[in-house]
Amino acid sequence: MSPLDKKMVRTLSRLKGQAVAIASVIALGVMTLVMMTGLVGTLSETRSTYYERYRLADVFAPAARAPQTVLQHLANLPGVAAVEGRVIGGALITLAEAGRPVRATALSIPRDARPLLNSYMLTSGRAPRVGRNDEVLLLQSFAEAVGLAPGDSLSATMNGARRTLVVVGLAQSPEFIYIAAPGEIVPDDTRFAVLWMLEDAMAAAFDMKGAFNEALLLLSRNANTQEVIAGANRLLDKYGGLGAYGLEDQASNRFVTEEIAGLRATVGVVPPIFLAIAAFLLNIVIARMIQSEREQIGILKAFGYTSLEIGVHYFKLVLVIALCGAVFGGALGILSGRLLSGAYQTYYKFPFLVFQISAGAFAIGVTVSVLAASAGAILVLRSVFSLTPAIAMRPPAPVDYSRTGAFGSRMKRLLDQPTRMVIRRIVRQPGRILGAIVGIACGMALSVGMVSILAGFDKTIDMTFSVIDRSDAMVSFTHPLSDTVQYELASLGGVHAVEPVRVVPVEFRHGLRQYRGAVNGLQEGARLNRALKSDLEPVELHTNGIVLSTALAKVLNAEIGDTIEIDVLEGRRPNLTVQVTGVAETLLGSPAYMSLEGLNRILKEPGRVSAVYLSAESDRLEALQLYFAELPRVAGISVKRDAEQAMQKIMNEGAGSTRYVMALIAAVITFGIIYNTARISFAESMRDLASLRVIGFTKGEASYVLLGELAAVVLVALPLGALMGYFLSFAISAGFSTDIYQVPSVFNPSGYGTAALVVLAASIVSGWIVKRDVDRVDLVEALKIKE
Amino acid sequence: MKHPPGYTFRTEALSKVYGEGEAAVHALRGVDLEIPKGEMVVLLGASGSGKSTLLNILGGLDHASGGHAWFEGIELTNLSDRELTLYRRQHVGFVFQFYNLMPSLTAEENVELVTEIAQNPMRPADALGLVGLDARKDHFPAQLSGGEQQRVAIARAIAKTPTVLFCDEPTGALDSQTGRAVLRVLKDVNERLNTTVLIVTHAAATADMADRVIKFADGMIRDVQVNSEKLTPEEINW
Ligand SMILES: Nc1ncnc2c1ncn2[C@@H]1O[C@H](COP(=O)(O)OP(=O)(O)O)[C@@H](O)[C@H]1O
Ligand SMILES: [Mg+2]
Asked: Fold for domain B38-63+80-235?
């Protein structure tokens, strides 16, 4: 090993505390990137593998009742690779113990084979036997959530008839990765079930002998989806076609896709910020580390080492630290990416995971770290190389303190000697101090940003479940009913108030943008569920205009005054043109609102409601649920308390869960920055401190000179970092928002206080560690050798 | 005027100014000098008289502000930084006023630092043997006394068998016993390898062993004296 390499190894081991701190910061930056990219890669690869393996359809074409013969025509459409017809129907399951009615979807399966399309994966038990029309497969997540197993029976109401079914097996399906009741956003394993029954049984239950009510189409690779959809609509029109739609509008897929897109957006914003801050810190630290080697660089030059040789030497040093950090971070990132993917599995029902490691993310992480470190090194090396060796070799001339001016005699009385030293050091080396301030401010900004986001998640829940929706439950009907139903419900015991709503499934279109969603017709002066403006005042609903949620307005690229088209997907399926008259602030989903009266009028169906919001005595909710389960016209009842808990869960187990990991990483990076700042200050002033001790300063006084400076730096950095964090939080909140929920950046003073506490705690711990080192300085050694 | 053969260094009106304006320090104010090949030269003068500055310029560590300096026909004052680096690497050995050892390297490794890039080096252990430190070759600078550090610095300077050896107060920190040993080494190098040796010193007695004694004052040469008879280091009266 050459003497220079030995020097490098020894320098590394001398600086090990600091090298480890730097490497950790790099590691965390790289880890965040690798973890998140791996997570996104794994989820999207798993999704497509799952879809492919179980042949999920590309186009879904529902109809009222179409004869089997139509399937052949569908198969002949250009671009269609495979077709299968099935019977799909709603069911309401009543469980023996829980007693609560649960909405379910019943699907037909071929008599003697697995479905050709939208197949299921049998996780336990067996498929129903031919002839046993009471045997069903049950969705595994529901079965597990409510404690059902093969062999158990359940009672279900289908098409108005109550029957008892036997569960013979449990299954999972790519069609139901994200499990929420139809029309609902918040997933809940206990509140939605899927039943697979033999086609004979389904045909009998739903009166579909020789017919189907949903065609599944698999497309060939280069097929034009829009043309196939148009063709299917044409073929199914006379059979009550309900509008074919592509996979991208399929509920479960849409949520999974949005989740992945949301994560991908997070990957695009948050890890780069972390990495940038780590890189910045690295740059400063390396620069200062090399600055402290100035005299040694001078000697090497004096002996005839070329600038290149010296540059390579320091580059190696930087490379070792950066690579160690990056490799460690990469490994950690892969590991945590896997853990996170696994956590997703409990929430998105993937039966397996196809792990992906992002080599690109790792390469980017390593490159950014090495570049940042090298940039710091090159900057300093260039300035040292520009000195003649004769000058570089000498200890730097004492910093000229003359320009700080003499302290007035009054100041002298007020400030003791060490304090005056602190002030002079700060005033005379503004560059050094500025670097430290900006570094610590970055740490503060990161903490503020993450704390704001944590508060943003809470705000989303609070807005959605306490401000916008103030009801206790929503009862939805199997089909629109006369609005007199509300008086019936209002007269039930324990019900305080009732508010009707009409929810109509539609496809919105504006220019080239389109979105499959629903319009909510709200009563004028609604109190239980309202459309609110950003100032939380209710939006005025005109009888002939539509109010879009901010998220929907963004998707459609529509503004107030624009005209949008609406294809209604139920009843007579009219095409409407309405003007956007307002924008409502929502943080969950992408709803649209019209006045109930206006909506019914343009649908030409006056006095119809499809659901009602209830406010009721909380101890009566259970009984009400039981009561509604018996009503044939009731499709389901969702209790807001349950929905809120489920939402909390999605935010804690889905993409939102990464916020905790990120917050932790932010805290560690903040600590790393502050610790490094303190350490470097110590290294730079060790000789001065030793000199102070030699001339009779106490340990406390000597530390005070250093810690006083750190304290001053932190005090300036806090407000600066708070300001930077305020802006950073907008970027981070955009990264965390998904199509399902938006995460606002919340300015809350207590959050800033928390962030400040994190920074202060990190400063105190760092200060304490450095103080210990100051106390331990071997005076003779420190003065004898110039490190 | 061309560089006459047989001289290692020649300077003409060499000057050096540090700083500017009112704060300017004239460290050299026109130095004309000739140093023949293979001589041992001693520079004497009060502190601050410009001795180190002259050494730095001749050694290629610093640029002159005016005038000319030649090394064996090469005009040093014309060389680029890259060429000066090559000059130092191939021809020059330094012993500094401050020991300037690498604190993170052992004595032997400090010597290796120079032999690594030299064209015709001694073995590091031999160089350390010459200064009587072979037993301490694995010690770090922090474990050595000031005098021992200076001897490591000398070993480091001679290990490359330089054409010219610059010593800035090499014996300043040493007791007379060690001082003599160090001078012995310098004399051996001078005689055996025909290395030109320039020594800056406070100890006027050292001048008795030099071929040539140059007295410095206020950045100018006051007096040059050529010794017809030289004493050996052992005979010097400290
Ligand atoms: N880098 C420098 N910057 C400013 N002044 C310098 C520098 N180096 C030396 N000097 C000044 O130049 C003069 C000559 O210094 P030097 O050559 O070191 O003297 P000597 O070695 O004879 O003691 C002194 O006045 C010294 O203060
Ligand atoms: Mg000197």
From this structure: Rossmann fold (3.40.50)
How far apart are the two ends of chain B, measured CA to CA in Å?
Answer: 41
Task: Name which of B18, B85, B154 to mutate to probe chain A: the one with the most chain A Cβ atoms within 10 A of its Cβ.
Answer: B85
Element (H, E) at A610: strand A608-616
Inspect the interface and report whether the beta carbons of A302 and B105 lie closer than 8 Å: no
Whole-structure pTM over 0.90, yes or no? Answer: no
Minimal Cβ distance to A781: which of B94, B102, B142: B142
Q: Do β-strands A101-109 and A192-198 pair in parallel, antiparallel, or remain unpaired? A: parallel
Strand arrangement of the beta sheet that strand B7-18 belongs to: B25-36, B7-18, B66-71, B74-75
What is the C-alpha R_g of chain A?
Answer: 33
Measured over the CA atoms of residue A180, residue A181, residue A184 and residue A188, the dihedral's sign is negative
DSSP code for A529: B
Residues of B with CB under 8 A from a CB of A: 56, 59, 61-63, 82, 85-90, 92, 94, 96, 100, 102-105, 109-110, 112-114, 116-117, 141-142, 156
CB A473 within 8 A of CB A613: yes
Longest dimension (CA), chain A: 105
Record: contact B100-A393, CB cut-off 8 A: yes
Neighbour count for residue B136 (Cβ, 10 Å): 16
Strand A563-568 with A495-510, pairing: antiparallel
Place of tokens 């093969």: A150
Residue pair A193/A104 in contact by the 8 Å Cβ criterion: yes
C-alpha A368/C-alpha A345 separation (Å) is: 32
Give the distance from residue B193's alpha carbon to the nearest chain A alpha carbon, in angstroms: 19
Kindly state the tokens that stand for B105. Answer: 């390297």
Q: Radius of gyration (Cα) for chain B, nearest Å?
A: 17
Residue with tokens 């998140």: A36
Question: Mean pLDDT of successive 10-residue segments in chain A (787 residues)?
Answer: 87 80 82 88 92 94 93 94 93 72 89 89 92 92 90 88 92 89 71 91 92 94 91 91 88 85 79 76 74 84 88 86 88 88 80 85 84 80 81 67 58 70 76 82 85 82 82 84 85 86 89 86 85 80 86 89 88 87 84 90 88 86 77 77 78 71 80 80 75 74 83 91 88 74 78 87 88 75 50
**Tokens describing residue A59:** 């186009």
How close is the Cα of A137 to the center of ligand 1, in Å? 94
B235, B180 Cβ separation under 8 angstroms: no
Distances (CA, A) of A417 to A407, A420, A690, B112: 11, 5, 16, 46
Domain segments of chain B as ranges: 38-63+80-235
Closest by CA position to A469, among listed A524, A527, A521: A527
User: How far apart (Å, rounded) are the C-alpha atoms in residues B85 and B128?
Assistant: 25
What are B1-46's pLDDT values in tens digits? 445 568 899 999 999 999 888 889 999 999 999 999 999 999 999 9
Give exposure, B39-66, as e/b (b: 16+ Cβ within 10 Å).
bbbbbbbeeebbbbbbbbbbbbbbebbe
Residue A562: closest CA among A507, A600, A505, A509: A509
Q: Which residues of B touch A303 (CB under 8 A)?
A: 88-89, 94, 113-114, 117, 156
**B34 beta partners:** B10
**Alpha helices (runs of H) in B101-238, residue ranges in sequence order:** 107-115, 124-130, 146-158, 176-192
Which residue matches tokens 């080239």?
Answer: A512
Taking an 8 Å Cβ-Cβ cutoff, which residues of chain A contact chain B?
A: 2-4, 6-7, 10-11, 14, 295-296, 299-307, 309, 388-391, 393, 781, 784-787
The whole-angstrom separation of Cα A478 and Cα A638 is 14
Give the tokens for residue A380: 């300093």
